[in-house]
Amino acid sequence: MKFFPKFYILFSLTLMIISAGRSKAEEPVPTRYKDQVEIQIYLLGNDSDVYSRRQAAETLGKWKDVRSIQPLLDAVQNDVDKDVREAAVRALPVEQLADSDLEILGNQLKHETYWVVREKISDVLGKSANPIRVNLMLEGVQSLLYERKDLGTGIDRAIDDSVITMINYLGDSKDPRVLPLLLKAFFYHDEESAFYEKKVRKAAALALGKTEERAAEEVLVEGMKSRSNRDLDMKPEIFIRALRPMRTASVVAALLSQLQMEAETAKDMNILSVLIESLMGKTESSKIAAPLISRLKLEEDSKMICMLADLLGMVGDPSAVQPLVRKLKGTGAGLDTDSYSFHITTSLIHIGDDKALHYLRGIMRLGANSQTVQFTANYLLLQDHKDPELRQLAVETAIKTYRENLFKKDLLVKCYSSNNRDMLKVCYSWDYQDYNILLKAIKIASENTNNDNPDLKQWATDFMAYEAAESYLYKLYVESENEDLSIKARKNIEEEIVSEKFHQAAELYMTSKRDKITSYGNFLGLWISKRLAGEPLPIPYYGHSGPP
């Protein structure tokens, strides 16, 4: 037994080491903390496990209890783990923060070493309605952008998304004190990091536009018109977007002048579309359309004609109808193959005045064999066009061109989501031809939260169980010229459908004397009978063992 004392001593030392190494997470929460908020606050400040502290911060953020504000601020300032600090910032209830709380965050912003935490602090400051936030963000940008170049180990640059975030909020503030700082940021230059320089200057330009100040307008207009070598990285679209909030006569004139110049020389749509968006609602649409029409008349490149047609459709001015039609007629016999004919017709749809509709009716009457007609018909249906004659022509074309249709699923979704009986007819002329597309369309349409068609919702609820049967019930309800038959079909749809009612519905459909009844009706009846009896359907139909 001589070994016993040594073993006992060794065992005792092991227990002592284990006891000494027990984490705070293993210690029970003091019994005085009966409230769940107090327990989470205790864990946030005392638990040695990083995951537990982060979870505590996230939980407190959901509860938004005022007692958690100070502990969360303490975590933002003092927690050694960056993820915990980030979670604590996210958890702060912005609307409940006092001046002193915001000042703590503003001070932490200058000393924080993790860029994500800085960005989240900037976001909290920006979202606060407290006037002090502007001062704090001004100080934050000044400190991070101009005063400090290093925030500690592993951090090379202070210029990051936190500065961009603050600049964006400063532009929204409409506070006159921000203008000098935004101008300073716009002209910011950093020899060490051109990437961050560009980000800062772009944010400053967009923020300057929001101020609507005269000094900001002059800088932005000058930047759009003539850019120095150092500004070559600043695309003209940035200046145009920055000028969008401004509505003065001088800004409108500058944008129109730029549009005239770009319309003569531009080779891509982006800059022209941004110019048009910035001018819409600020001046007459005819003034916006004029330079585009001039370019269209002279243009021979198909891609550019497509682009110009789309832009004129965006403007929507009737002065563009005649030039568009002339360009379309110039295609002659090549109407089907010329790539820009569809763009012109869709532009006419967007313009939508009497002349445009007149030409569209003429185009639609060319016949379903025209690819342009097919595309135009699809577009009219997808847009749910209100002109009854055009819509009827589009329905007829869509029904005729199912096999060649490139937008079957999209069109079915739109038609099934519509309350328009003309559009529903397109679905019911297609549904037996492609069940895979039909099922996808039904699923998407039924999940559409904006869909307010009660018949569709009721139909889609039971569709997955009785796809084919209910499809033909609804088809019967919509298309039947027999009023009694239609009412019976609708009644079966609206009520809770049971086996007997489905069987009756199938018999109604098969025995109705209508020209469209085919052998498929007999197949449907057999399929329903077999399915209701729980038997497999052995009879193939056009390569299928039955509806999916």
Major beta sheet, specifics? none
What kind of assembly state do the chains in view correspond to?
A: single chain
How much strand content do the residues show?
under 5%
How far the N terminus sits from the C terminus, by CA atoms, comes to 81 Å
How many E-type strands? 0
Helix content, binned percent = 55-70%
Q: What is the element string, with H for helices and E for strands?
A: HHHHHHHHHHHHHHHHHHHHHHHHHHHHHH
Q: How many helical stretches? A: 30
Determine the mean pLDDT: 75
Q: What general form does the structure show?
A: flat
Rg is 34 Å
SS-derived structural category: mainly alpha
Which residue ranges are poorly predicted, with pLDDT under 50 across at least 5 consecutive positions?
7-11, 13-26, 151-156, 332-338, 456-468, 493-502, 508-532, 536-548
Give me some keywords for this one.
mainly alpha; 548 residues; disordered C terminus; flat; 0% strand; 30 helices
